Amino acid sequence: MKIGIIDYKSGNLKSIQNMLTYLGQEHFIASTKDEIESADKLIFPGQGHFSQAKKALETSGLIDSIKTSIKDGKPFLGICLGLQILFENSEEAPNEKGLSIVKGDVLKFQQGKTPQIGWNKISTTKNNSILEDESYYFVNSYYVKPKDTTIVSAYCNYHIDFTASIEKQNLIAVQFHPEKSGEAGIRVFEKWIKL
Amino acid sequence: MLAKRIIPCLDIKDGQTVKGVNFENLKYAGDPISLAKKYSDEGADELVFLDITATNEGRKTTIQMVENVAKQVFIPFTVGGGVKTVNDIKALLRAGADKVALNSAAVKNPDIIKEASEEFGSQCIVIAIDAKKIDDDFYVFINAGQKNTGIKLLDWAKKIEALGAGEILLTSMDADGTQAGFDIAMTKLVSENVNIPVIASGGAGDKPEHFCDVFEYASADAALAASIFHFDLLPVPELKKYLREKNISIR
């Protein structure tokens, strides 16, 4: 089984590579359409700006193959901006559409220091299969608000309650960084790899 | 609720951990990776590596050390000390550092903050500030605390926030080395007047109350210490247990 880490020249892939290597899991960097198609599972890491990420994905021509992979049932793990970019609109980039794979918006925190930096405890819902009611490491100024709340798999609180993760069949995406969440984060990858 | 962070700081020279008091009587204290792993296992929330290496040769060793830490330690870590250019930042981030701390270089050339935060994202640009009270105001010092810039602390803190800094690592030169507690007045001034997280540094002693005070009375988002952890004067699990009992939000 080979995991493809989607590279769209935005964000640091190294910590995900280090985590998978540590777990003895075969993986490769998927930066072309063919590479995305050849992966058994996909990780979509994200860091940086919503608009830059969307533009980078367009430039690299990966959007269709990502959408097809998700539609065809390939296990998919989005992380941080890799969660937000799946949505329709973001307050970070009012003139840019997201991938619109999930209906809803990305909103900016109105209270508290931004970004939220640090460990925050999540509360999982019945719709969760790989997370625990544990603390994970967050770095975010924006949070997702899905139209269909049944896809939420965990909530968290930073001055307001917000969606920490979503899950819909083969599609799982988390706002926090499991690759930086110590033992709890390692268990997220172990469980996801086994799915 | 977001937890307050406890951050051990490791001083690095030529790729090795060194222990000393106020950079004097430095002793090599072994492999930074084992120490980083130990802190991570004990519940440290993040780590800071402060590179006190002077030579270029030694700095290459630091890059290798960063690569090795990133392969084995899965909590966030910051690397600082002698970072001068955007290329220095890039090299450390590529090696696997999550954040890079800038100090004197940011004062000498504030544009580097904007440039680096735009290129790599604010979240990985930490600005370290060394400050000291003179008469009734706090001033920013550079060159390892040797030179007073004449810049007022809060002016500088607000300026770096506007330029795109993601976090402030604030060291009180008055408190540093005293082990008498964090500088509450200084930390509070910055933390309550900027909208980015502030890491308090300098002055932590073996009393867990020091940490409780800086979180409760100075609104610090995180607290950093070196010697009390290195010399096992206050192990991380014991500190966290105390803070939990005091109802401080802790992981």
Model description:
The complex is a heterodimer of chains A (195) and B (251). With 195 residues, chain A is of the alpha/beta class. Chain A has one domain (3-194): Rossmann fold, CATH 3.40.50. Chain A has helices at 14-22, 33-38, 50-60, 63-71, 81-84, 182-194; strands at residues 3-6, 27-30, 41-44, 76-79, 89-90, 104-108, 116-121, 123-124, 135-140, 142-146, 152-158, 160-168, 171-174. In chain A, strand 1, helix 1 (14-22) and strand 2 (27-30) form a beta-alpha-beta unit. The radius of gyration of chain A is 15 Å and the shape is globular. Chain B is an alpha/beta fold and 251 residues long. Chain B has a single domain (5-245), classed as TIM Barrel (Alpha-Beta Barrel), CATH 3.20.20. Chain B has ten helices and twelve strands. Chain B has helices spanning 32-42, 56-72, 86-95, 104-108, 111-120, 153-163, 184-191, 209-216, 227-230, 236-245; strands spanning 5-13, 16-21, 24-28, 47-51, 77-80, 99-102, 125-134, 137-142, 147-152, 167-172, 198-201, 222-225. An eight-stranded parallel barrel of chain B has the order 1-4-5-6-7-10-11-12, surrounded by seven helices. In chain B, a hairpin with a 2-residue loop joins strand 2 (16-21) and strand 3 (24-28). Chain A binds chain B through residues 12, 14-15, 18-19, 21-22, 47-49, 112-121, 135, 137-139, 157-158, 177, 179-183, 185-186, and chain B through 1-5, 40, 45, 70-72, 74-76, 93-94, 96, 98, 121-123, 166-167, 194-197, 221-222, 251.
CATH class of chain A: Alpha Beta
Query: Radius of gyration of chain A, Cα only, in angstroms?
Result: 15 Å
Shape of chain A: globular
Helix content of chain A: 25-40%
Give the radius of gyration of chain B: 17 Å
- Spatial order of strands in the largest sheet of chain B: 1-4-5-6-7-10-11-12
Q: Helical region count of chain B?
A: 10
Termini separation of chain A comes to 12 Å
The oligomerization state is heterodimer
- The residue-averaged pLDDT of chain A reads 95
CATH architecture of chain A: 3-Layer(aba) Sandwich
Q: Which geometry of chain B do the CA atoms define?
A: globular
Briefly note the structural class of the backbone of chain B. Answer: alpha/beta
Measured as a percent range, the helix fraction of chain B is 25-40%
User: Mean pLDDT of chain B, as a whole number?
Assistant: 93
Low-confidence segments of chain A, ≥5 residues, pLDDT <50? none
Q: What is the SS-derived class of chain A?
A: alpha/beta
The CATH class of chain B, by name, is: Alpha Beta
